[in-house]
Amino acid sequence: MRDVVEKAIHCAWQIHYHIVFPVKYRRGLLDDAVVKIIMMTAKAIEDRYDIEFEQIGCDEDHVHILCTAHPKIAPGQIVRVFKSITARELFKWKPDLKRDLWGGEFWTDGYYVATVGERADWGVVERYVKNQGKPKEELRQLELF
To answer: Which terms in the Gene Ontology molecular function aspect does this entry carry (predicted)?
Structure first.
């Protein structure tokens, strides 16, 4: 987590959100090619909106995002922008995904959001997001016996 206090003309803030949402029907569609499109699209969203994605982690059927944004941007707006733009780009570059989702939407309607520090400290959440999609064997601690 950056300990930087962001500043604008009339306010200063240090807000970090942990946002989670799954693929529609919890389908395991987030392979390497799809994740690459999501990451490229996230960069484009950062350039256009006042949102900074600090960490994005993808498992096969859901996404974790750590981000910060100007306080005027509600967490629900961040989710709406991210879901709509990434879904449009995914269907444009990988039209076969629509078949896997029976011609419907890419993301579910719901989401989870928490401010980091409210439910867990930054380091715990960052490691959790960073380790999304890694095999469980890689994440296990060494056993003594």
So the answer is: DNA binding; transposase activity
End-to-end CA separation in angstroms for the chain:
36
Tokens in use for 13?
A: 């803030």
pLDDT in tens, 8-63: 899 998 899 999 999 999 999 999 999 999 999 999 999 999 999 999 999 999 99
Please classify residue 139 by burial: count the beta carbons closer than 10 Å to its beta carbon, then call 0-12 exposed, 13-18 middle and 19+ buried. Answer: exposed
User: CATH number, domain at 77?
Assistant: 3.30.70.1290
- Residue pair 63/38 in contact (Cβ under 8 Å)? The answer is yes
Q: How many domains does the chain divide into?
A: 1
Question: Which pTM value belongs to this model?
Answer: 0.81
**Phi-psi group of 76: left, alpha or beta (phi > 0 → left; psi -120 to 50 → alpha; rest → beta):** alpha
Q: Which domain, by its residues, includes 124?
A: 11-133
Cα 68–Cα 14–Cα 8 angle in degrees, nearest 5 = 90
In a domain, 15, yes or no: yes
- Say how many residues make up the chain: 145
